[in-house]
Each structure stands twice: as structure tokens, then as C-alpha cells.
Amino acid sequence: MQSRMQKHRMEKESVDLLLTKAMVGHVSTINEDGYPYTVAVHFVYENNKIYFHGLSQGQKIDNIKRCSKVCFEVDEMKSLMLENLDTPCTADTEYESVVILGSATILSDLETRKSILQAVVQKYAPELPDMPYTMINGTAVVEIVIEEMTGKYHK
Fold first, then answer.
1. 46-49 — which CB contacts under 8 Å span 24+ positions?
2. What is the pTM of this model?
3. CATH number of the domain at 3-84+92-154, please?
4. CA quadruple 114, 117, 119, 122: dihedral sign
5. C-alpha dihedral over 107, 30, 74, 19, to 10 degrees?
6. Distance from C-alpha of 100 to C-alpha of 73, rounded to nearest angstrom
7. For residues 121 and 139, is the Cβ–Cβ distance under 8 A?
């Protein structure tokens, strides 16, 4: 384990809070050539799982169908720490970050997908709670079951 990780490990409550309030996450999948493929996603954290949505076709979905192992990351930069610097090399950043390793599944149950999409709308556009989901058949909803999760901070 990295020394900073030992000194700056986030407690579970802080990890949960960051996963609840962060607006953008990054999901990494493995493409057909074995390379990581990372994209930004809107997501919700519910029942100790990560859920995100997107088009039902594309590289991210193809990668998940081929290999369910994913990495999910969120971070929040709070400020640059520029006081009492001797050189630019001693500048630092106040931040929080969470890295998750898990298994992704494309959900097929319509009611579950609707429920997750409602949670997404509540998080990102709470002023639109009653609008119909006209594109649900073309929308993939992905569930990440968390196998390992670590949070790190620096201040």
C-alpha cells in the first residue's frame, strides 16, 4: 500500500458522502485489444452499488459484455495549496478520491431500470421528476457490484 494511502485513508462515511455528492464518475473497461477504456459518466450510488446509464450500444457496453471487470473512480479537487512554497515542486492539492473495483452488469429488468433512472433524474435534474422516459428502450442501465473500494484524501 502506498504511504499516502496509509496516512490519508478516508473513513466509510466520507467515502459514501463523496460517492453521493460527486457529479461525474469515470468508468474503465477493457477493450477487445486488452487496453483500458475510460469514460466519464453520470451515476448514482445506492445500496452500496454504483449505477450509470448511457446508450445501449457502443464500446463501453461491448466491453462490459465481453468482460465484466471494471474500475470506477470519482474525485473532487478542493483547492491548490500554495502557501509557503520554496519551489513549484512543493505545491500540493487538497482533494478526495474514491477508487472502486467491481463487476458490471447491464440490467434488463424494466422496473429496476426505471427506478435507477428516476434516481438519476432526482440527482441531476430534480425539477423534472414526472417527465416520461420515452427513450428507455434505447438506454442501458449498468450496475457495478463493488468488490473493493478505497478512499483517499489530502489536506
1. 46/116, 46/119, 48/146, 49/143, 49/144, 49/145, 49/146
2. 0.88
3. 2.30.110.10
4. negative
5. 30
6. 6
7. no
Decide: 92 and 137 in contact? Cβ < 8 Å. no
CA distances (Å), origin 94, targets 15, 17, 76, 110: 16, 17, 9, 41
Locus of grid cell 470506477: 72
First-last CA distance in the chain: 19
pLDDT in tens, 68-110: 999 999 999 876 666 776 777 766 777 899 999 999 999 999 9
